[in-house]
Amino acid sequence: MTAIIDLKTLYESNYLQWLEETIKCLKSRQLAGIDYENLIEELEDLAKNEKRRVRSLLEQIIRHLLLYQYWDLEKLRNANHWAAEITGFRNQLNEDLTANLRNHLEDNFSGIYSNALDYVKAKTTLTNLPEICPYTLEQILDKNWLP
Question: What's the pLDDT band for 62 if we cut at 50, 70, 90?
Fold first, then answer.
């Protein structure tokens, strides 16, 4: 019981040490010493952060695809920049995309597109942007595809 109190106290005073001690307890299967409450909270936060990160990357790709495809006035000057941004964000997203995170993106696709659309509308004042995403997730993730 003392280990639980110590880890809970450690969590408040030295997060990195708490993390290291928690890992040691897990590796050695000393489950009685685990600070479950804070460990669960940290794991939930980790999952939320990963989901937020992939949503953000997907939104960035969609923003740049929309700019690339629809902002004709700026295309000549910015097309290479937008294509490079798309490549960079795709590489980041594809690097760590798991089946679970991909499902999360599919489940939230319309909301992510809506956020990207709001941004592009505000940036460009374009009126020819589609209200429904013209790209599939497969196209968006395909490193060789541009509209």
Answer: very high
Burial 21-60 (b: 16+ CB within 10 A, else e): bbeebeeeeeeebbbeebbeebeeeeeeeebeebbebbbb
Task: Decide if pLDDT at 83 tops 60.
Answer: yes
Give the whole-angstrom CA distance, residue 6 versus residue 14.
11
The pLDDT value recorded for residue 1 is 44
- The DSSP call for residue 30 is -
* Nearest-angstrom CA–CA distance, 18 and 5: 12
Q: What are phi and psi of 93, to 5 degrees?
A: -70, -45
Residue 91 is given by DSSP the state H
**DSSP 8-state assignment for residue 133:** -
